[in-house]
Amino acid sequence: xxxxxxxxxxxxxxxxxxxxxxxxxxxxxxxxxxxxxxxxxxxxxxxxxxxxxxxxxxxxxxxxxxxxxxxxxxxxxxxxxxxxxxxxxxxxxxxxxxxxxxxxxxxxxxxxxxxxxxxxxxxxxxxxxxxxxxxxxxxxxxxxxxxxxxxxxxxxxxxxxxxxxxxxxxxxxxxxxxxxxx
Length: 182
Prior knowledge:
Blueprint: E1 3-4, H1 21-29, H2 32-42, H3 48-55, H4 59-71, E2 75-80, E3 88-93, H5 95-99, H6 101-114, E4 150-151, H7 177-180
Parallel strand pairs: 1-4
Antiparallel strand pairs: 2-3
């Protein structure tokens, strides 16, 4: 189990509802069709009709999900024009979309391992052809197993993250109890 640390250890003293990154991610991409479109984007698909056909979803669903993925910042539209045709939009991965890739591949690995009939495909390292996998690694490069994983408030509080970290002080949790009390 993931060990809750510090103020998070009192599980009844706070609520993750509305603040949890998992909840927010699922709001952005929680539909099956959105995940299939992201898979196709990782396979190099950029054109609307190709997304719809390759993901096996209706054009209406493709349109709605692509719009949501653009709104979430995972894909962006870029204009293109084929000879003799009107200008159209293609959908390309953003840096945030590339950062989301391990989530999709972790789902791939789980399905490959635990669901029947899913073991034929493998992720591979192109340089050496060995099987590749998704894992949790700490900032010091250690592989982190399930029983070694903890969760604490970010140093510097709620606004911490890439490019937003600030020095940590005892009073600088960035989380008010009232924001997390159930």
